[in-house]
Design a protein that fits this description.
By secondary structure, this protein is mostly beta strands. 7% of the residues lie in helices and 39% in strands. The strands form nine sheets. The chain has a six-stranded mixed beta sheet with strand order 25-5-6-7-8-41. A hairpin with a 2-residue loop joins strand 14 and strand 15 (292-300). The protein is globular. The model is unreliable at 1-92 (pLDDT under 50). Bound molecules: 2,5-dideoxy-2,5-imino-D-mannitol. 2,5-dideoxy-2,5-imino-D-mannitol is lined by residues 104-105, 143-144, 160, 171, 203-204, 220, 267-268, 323-324, 397. 2,5-dideoxy-2,5-imino-D-mannitol binds at residues 104-105, 143-144, 160, 171, 203-204, 220, 267-268, 323-324, 397. Residues 70-86 have a biased composition (Polar residues). May be present in two forms, a 70 kDa monomer and a heterodimer of the 30 kDa and 38 kDa subunits. The ratio of the levels of the two forms within cells appears to be regulated developmentally. GO terms for molecular function: beta-fructofuranosidase activity. The chain crosses the membrane at residues 41-60. Residues 456-647 form the Glycosyl hydrolase family 32 C-terminal domain.
């Protein structure tokens, strides 16, 4: 076990040049006396070279645009090489809108103002972006997770997939199976658009197990006339653990949009749950009426004929179209997950909607009255779409399922690219599924869920290093030596010096991560945390951190943020500061976990109370050049950090070896 004590000079992070290393205090002196001179010498050499580099970087930044290496693309899937001729910005047309005319969210990533500027990506950079232990198809476009389930020893994941290209279109159901949710086998498509009622797309759906062992899959079909209808499919052969063949019910579609509901506003049926008498099934479908997001409920005894129940399960004005609604119980007493039909004392119900208007997944905790068929939020101020999010980064169209194998509820979410569509066409692929997360009610706060990567991901942990009690003075950065910086599982905790904390009032009590300006913005009690996917000189890097805002009344609010502003020197990628508040209970340390897997970083604060998923596309901080740092950019307090970092192996994801059976 390596123990690292911060001995690097402290640097002021607040300056015109981000992370320009201007020391604001002498180097830490905890090193043995005999080492001090050499440390000082090393520090001054480091400082001089950092200073020189800052000057160079500043110089580069102030060059006219034409001097910066850029490549212009015409939007086709062209191979980029050093000989490719730049195409003038005027000839590069914006990508066509994708999905909107069919009534789903915009699928093309649009970067305001930078459409004509593409970075000169190299093959090395682009191939680095592909993840190593997250689920991705071999190529092309993927979006929502669909119908996850566990059957006869296999976890099944279906997903929205375009077999033809790295952009949305021709939506089919990709299919993969796994024994452990980490290593996957690709299987043949489960469903393709081949009927009048789903010819424009086999859209999102969910699985339900019937008591006799049958499985029904309800999904949305986009018809030849671009009308959203609900359809039924089922496995052709229940004795096949791989569930290879799916039959579309001959009576499809089973539901058309009801009166008063737009033909493009009726989609994504949930897993069904049993009615109070146990003789009928209910499921909900997202929609909207004007700007009010709603969830319709249908009841069926046989999945062939259906009745729409009066009223809505729930509605929230101003939230717009609800996509991919999810509805499930969580125990307030136990840590195990619950099957979707369970209700009664000691149970709350989670209602989640993916808001088409802002493309984020919002959930709320509440109570489901199954006799009235109404769900009521615990806190109307934290209602669906106006309160909590599963994830404050890029995370959408998520879906849970009950894993009867390990009695847990597992959440999957689609993590789209945040580079441009041109970059995706160059790469030949787009989107990742998050690492599946277990979801439980947070019994300590009573007001939120806890999300945590499934335990199986820890199978991939290999060599680890530990850094105990690293003292970080105000404005300091400490490099952490790790083996494979693009594939890591980082667990870190931080303690603020108690006396300093008591005696400090943070003026900026109305802090908010997205508007804060990021980790360069210093307060008395933050930011402090880690920087991942940074290069040696910190010209690129993504800080993931806490910021404590303590008002004059002595009350402290903690924020958990991810600052992508300097994550990449490429101009054509989305760079923002993500984050939100995170509850920290008296006596708890500030704790975070980050799963770094090339272009995706999933970060969990306080055991999963607040989660942020980032997509990051560095140009320098890749492969062997990537670094990890600890930092404390607070002005008023010292922070003590303890970190354990594992190198993560790669998941084995390949075609099912049918020929070896
Ligand atoms: N994606 C599907 C729809 C869903 C949307 C289409 C959410 O069913 O509403 O690909 O991303």
């Amino acid at each position: 076990m390596a123990t690292y004590l911060s001995k690097t000079p402290a640097y002021d992070l607040e300056d015109a040049t981000y992370y320009s290393p201007i020391p604001d205090q002498p180097p830490a002196t905890s090193a043995p006396a005999g080492h001090r001179r050499s440390k000082k010498l090393l520090a001054s050499i480091l400082f001089s070279s950092f200073f020189l580099l800052s000057l160079i970087l500043l110089f580069i930044k102030h060059q006219p645009e034409s001097a910066v290496s850029q490549t212009k693309f015409n939007g086709t899937n062209q191979e980029k090489s050093s000989t490719s001729k730049p195409i003038s910005p005027a000839t590069r047309t914006p990508p066509p809108s994708r999905g909107v005319s069919q009534g789903v969210s915009e699928k093309a990533f649009r970067l305001a103002g930078s459409e004509n500027v593409s970075y000169s990506w190299t093959k090395t950079m682009l191939s680095w972006q592909r993840t190593s232990y997250h689920f991705q198809p071999e190529d092309n476009w993927m979006n929502d997770p669909n119908g996850p389930l566990y059957y006869k020893g296999w976890y099944h994941l279906f997903y929205q997939y375009n077999p033809d290209s790295a952009v949305w279109g021709t939506i089919s159901w990709g299919h993969a199976v796994s024994k452990d949710l980490i290593h996957w086998f690709y299987l043949p498509f489960a469903m393709v658009p081949d009927q009048w009622y789903d010819i424009s797309g086999v859209w999102t759906g969910s699985a339900t197990f019937l008591p006799d062992g049958r499985i029904v899959m309800l999904y949305t079909g986009d018809t030849v006339d671009i009308v959203q209808v609900q359809c039924l499919a089922y496995p052709a052969n229940l004795s096949d653990p791989l569930l290879l063949d799916w039959v579309k019910y001959s009576g499809n579609p089973v539901l058309f949009p009801p009166p008063g509901i737009g033909v493009k506003d009726f989609r994504d049926p949930t897993t069904a749950w049993l009615s109070p008498d146990g003789d009928k099934w209910r499921f909900t479908i997202g929609s909207k009426v004007n700007k009010t997001g709603i969830s319709l409920v249908y009841e069926t005894a046989d999945f062939k004929s259906y009745d729409m129940l009066d009223g809505y399960l729930h509605e929230v004005p101003g939230t717009g179209m609800w996509e991919c609604v999810d509805f499930y119980p969580v125990s307030t007493k136990e840590v195990n997950g619950l099957d979707t039909s369970v209700n009664g004392p000691g149970i709350k119900h989670v209602l989640k909607a993916s808001l088409d208007d802002d493309k984020n997944d919002y959930y709320a905790l509440g109570t489901y009255d199954q006799f009235e068929n109404k769900w009521v939020p615990d806190d109307p101020e934290l209602d669906v779409g106006i309160g909590l999010r599963y994830d404050y980064g890029k995370y959408y169209a998520s879906k849970t399922f009950y894993d009867q194998n390990k009695q847990r509820r597992i959440l999957w979410g689609w993590v789209r690219e945040t580079d441009s569509e041109y970059d995706d066409l160059l790469k030949g692929w787009a989107s990742v599924q998050s690492i599946p997360r277990t979801v439980v009610f947070d019994q300590k706060t009573g007001s939120n869920l806890l999300q945590w990567p499934v335990i199986e991901v820890e199978e991939l942990r290999s060599k680890s290093v530990e850094f105990d009690n690293v003292k970080l003075g105000p404005g300091s950065i400490s490099p952490l030596k790790v083996g494979s910086p693009s594939q890591l599982d980082i667990v870190a905790s931080f303690e603020i010096d108690k006396d300093a904390f008591e005696g400090t009032v943070e003026a900026n009590a109305s802090y908010s991560c997205p508007t804060s300006g990021g980790a360069a913005n210093r307060g008395k009690l933050g930011p402090f945390g880690i920087i991942v996917l940074a290069d040696e000189t910190l010209s690129e890097g993504t800080p993931i951190y806490f910021y404590v805002a303590k008002g004059a009344n002595g009350k402290a609010e903690t924020h958990f943020c991810a600052d992508e502003l300097r994550s990449s020197e490429a101009p054509d990628v989305y760079k923002v500061v993500y984050g939100s508040k995170v509850p920290v209970i008296d006596g708890e340390k500030y704790s975070l976990r980050s799963l770094v897997d090339h272009s995706i970083v999933e970060s969990f604060a306080q055991g999963g109370r607040t989660v942020i998923t980032s997509r990051i596309y560095p140009t320098k901080a890749i492969n062997g050049a990537a670094r990890v740092f600890l930092f404390n950019n607070a002005t008023g307090v010292s922070v003590t950090a303890s970190v354990k970092i594992w190198n993560m192996g790669s998941a084995d994801i390949r075609h099912f070896p049918f020929n070896q059976l």
